[in-house]
Each structure stands twice: as structure tokens, then as C-alpha cells.
Amino acid sequence: MRTVAAIMSASLIIFISTANILANDREIKPPRDYAPPIFQSSRELDEVLRSSINDVIAGRKNGPFNPGEIAATLIDLRHPSVIRTAAVDGERQLYPASVVKMFYLAALERQLADGKVTMTPELQRGLRDMIVDSSNEATQYILDVLTDTSSGAELPSASFVKWQYKRNRVNRFYSAMGFTNINVNQKTFCEDAYGIEQQSRGYKGQNRNMLTTDATARLLAEIVSGRMNTPERTKAMMDLMDRNWSKPSEDADSQAAGFTGKALKDLKIDGAKLWSKAGWTSRSRHDAAYVETPDGLRFVLVIFTENHANERDFIPDVAGRVIQRLRRANS
């Protein structure tokens, strides 16, 4: 006769094995037919981007940007078979602020498409608030759903390793698609992280979220071109990032009326469409935008700036010059 201890031991093995299977099943997987896009460096786009940035910097009254304080990537999507791109310091790692929320959006939409997460009214509310209102609290909830982790007290080393492995689930997803030089495994906060969240950051910020403009522009280009997901889930993402830039707003930090949207308004491009995700802190000011214009422009423009967070005109001024140069080249 089997002893109680033997039965309990066998049950524990079965439980652990089942838990491991379930954990592996929750891994975020690229689409089955996924193939990384092939980008072609373009001298023409490089001239457009660099000249636009240099013009704005030259006209500033606050002095030059120091090395490492600006990065930008431009992707031309007019011809899907030949995706042209250019960048200025596009592989530099910078703290992304709320732009990282776009990465969590795309990851969760993959889980929804694969049936590994079920949409509920509360999850829909969280997604909307994370992208439309850029809510940090909503982002914390979404990352918990994505990684099966939660905030709380610091953990002993062995337990923390298991917790951190789960928290890195989003990183593994993007790594599987060939994204490099990024870190997307931290919650966003209005003030600061505490407990295990600070432990996860490395206490001194060694493991903070980090993005490049190249990776951010690539993700946005893949979302809008439908490479990341099904048509239904692609539309859901696009709907959340759709910005009505022509609507009057008193908010200088509005994702719609500020940032790249301000450039469209300043240039009076009636009928232009904008999808974007902005991010800002006391030090950072970033925007990731996809623009379509009635005269045929289709482009992604990502601009990150550090130590110039209060210069609200810089990003729209660069975006405006990029649009003008692209239109002249397109005429």
C-alpha cells in the first residue's frame, strides 16, 4: 500500500509539471507565419531626417543638444515591398517613458489572438486607459496580466529568480521576433517603484525599461502594416492609437494636439491621419507616430529626446520639416 507521503510526493510532482506546462503555454508567441521585415537604408530619407533635426537645433535659443540627447528613426511605408528607413542614433538605448506601453499593447493583443488571454470589460478598460490616457496604473495591471506577476514585498533570491523569469516574458516575445537592444519588463509609475518592483529594477535602475528609436519605429511599422496580428486585432490596436489632432486642446502634452499632431495642425494638412504613442517625464520627451496624408505620404517617425522635456515645440518642429521635405520629394 502506498504511503500518504508517497501519494503527496507524486501529487506534488504532477502539480509542478502541470504548472510548468501552463506557464510555458502562457508564453507570448509571434504569428506562425511571421517573418521579420527587411529594411533598406535610404540616403534620401537620411538627408530628410538629418536636415530636419539640424535645422530645428540651429534655430533654437537654448543652445545645442549634447551627444546622446536625441535619437530619431524615419520609415517610409509607401511601398511595402521596399521599406526604406533612416536613423539618427537609432540604436541608442534611452528610457522610453510611456512609449513602452505600445510594446505591452502589441504583446497583449498577441495573447488575445492566440486565446491565451480572454478579453473582459475590465481588460478592455485597462487597455484603453493605458494607450488613450497613458495611465500608469492601467499599465501596471496590463503587465501583471501579460506576465502572471504582481507587485509586493521583496523576495528571497531563489523565489525572485522565478518571479523575474516570468516578468521577462515580454522580452522573450520580442527577442523571438529579432528585436535587439531593448528591455521591456518594468511597470510605469507616477512616482517610484517599491518592494519587488524596485528589486526587479536592480535598486539603482540597472534593469529599467530601455528602447531605441529603431526598435520603436519597427514595432509601429509592423503594427500598422498588419504584420503583428490578425486584421481584427490590428484594427483594435490602431483604434486605440488613433489621434484626432484637429480637435482643439488646451493640453500642451496632449498625444493628439501636441507632439507630431501639432505639426499637422501647424501645416494645416486637412485630411491627414495620425496614430501615435507619446511619452514624457521630467527629463524625457518622446513620440512614436504614424502619419498618412491626402497627397500619399505614409511614414513612421519616432523621436526621443533627453534633458529637453520642457521644449514642447522641438518634436513638432522636426516632424513638420520632415513632412515638408517628404512632400517636396514626393512632388
Describe the protein in words:
- It is built from twelve helices and seven strands.
- The chain has 331 residues and is an alpha+beta fold.
- The protein has two domains: 41-94 and 213-331; 95-211, no CATH class.
- Mean pLDDT is 92; it is low at 4-12 and 14-22.
Keywords for this entry:
331 residues; 12 helices
Largest sheet: 7 strands, mixed
Helix content: 40-55%
| SS elements, strand count | 7
Number of helices: 12
Radius of gyration, in angstroms, nearest whole number: 22 Å
Mean pLDDT: 92
Shape: globular
Order of adjacent strands in the largest pleated sheet: 1-3-2-7-6-5-4
Q: What are the secondary-structure elements, in order, as H or E?
A: HEHEEHHHHHHHHEHEEEH
Question: What's the topology here?
Answer:
Elements: H1 4-25, E1 39-41, H2 43-58, E2 70-76, E3 83-88, H3 100-113, H4 121-131, H5 136-147, H6 157-167, H7 169-176, H8 196-201, H9 213-224, H10 231-241, E4 242-243, H11 259-266, E5 273-280, E6 284-292, E7 298-306, H12 314-330
Parallel strand pairs: 1-3
Antiparallel strand pairs: 2-3, 2-7, 4-5, 5-6, 6-7
Helix pairs in contact: 2-12, 3-5, 3-9, 3-10, 4-5, 11-12
Summary, kept brief:
The protein contains twelve helices and seven strands. The protein is about 45% helix and about 15% strand.
